[in-house]
Specification:
single chain; 223 residues; alpha/beta
Length: 223
């Protein structure tokens, strides 16, 4: 089976016992933890900052933390999340005036950089930065709120970006975020995605372990 990764988004976790809930989902088989950071400016919602990331590290969470910054401007907060324990930091091109500078800022702070494209955002910018990326994240919903339905048009976009990655020859993860569940995770994988953000599909399920196992069973059938 391909090196697929499942990344539950803590946006749907129980914040009254966040450390325990994150530990539970990791024990259930999650590969990494996804942080959806929203600023009530770039997107119409407000979530959490670097202190929450740092608190999970202090709690004892050692798994990969994948920080998705839905923030504008973005550069100011990158060093804070790097210090707080982030491994991947992804951001939207609309959140910076200088794409290349922001990518290098993430690297300088010891993290792996990624670019995030909204459903209607062109993939054209990737041509000029793909060789410097460790991850490309494609939004399959419009960012801002959990629990939205997967936009089917994202599947074609996944295929196009996968072709760009293959042509680059670089080891770049292709992540998809938004409405991922048992019904569509296989289609996203067939299109070329290898990393799957799932929030409500996992955290709102009766059994984290059963849900993640079922997702892996679907992925195991992808040729």
């Amino acid at each position: 089976m391909k090196n697929y990764k499942i990344a539950p988004s803590i946006l749907s976790a129980d914040f009254s016992r966040l450390g325990e809930d994150v530990e539970k989902v990791i024990d259930a088989g999650a590969d990494m933890i996804h942080f959806d950071v929203m600023d009530n400016h770039y997107v119409p919602n407000l979530t959490f900052g670097p202190m929450v990331c740092a608190s999970l590290r202090e709690y004892g969470i050692t798994s990969t933390i994948d920080v998705h910054l839905m923030v504008k401007p973005v550069d100011r907060i990158i060093p804070d999340f790097a210090k707080a324990g982030a491994n991947y930091i992804t951001f939207h091109p609309e959140g910076t005036e200088h794409l290349d500078r922001t990518i290098n800022l993430i690297k300088e702070n010891g993290c792996k950089p990624g670019v995030v494209l909204n459903p209607a955002t062109s993939i054209g910018c990737l041509e000029h930065c793909i060789n410097d990326l460790d991850m490309i994240l494609l939004m399959s919903v419009n960012p801002g709120f959990p629990g939205q339905k997967f936009i089917n048009g994202t599947l074609k976009k996944i295929s196009l970006v996968k072709d760009l990655i293959n042509k680059s020859g670089k080891d770049i993860r292709l992540e998809v975020d938004g409405g991922i569940n048992l019904e569509n995770i296989g289609k996203a994988a067939e299109a070329g995605a290898d990393t799957f953000v799932a929030g409500s599909a996992i955290f709102n399920s009766k059994s984290y372990s059963e849900t993640i196992t079922s997702m892996r069973e679907v992925l195991s059938k992808i040729k």
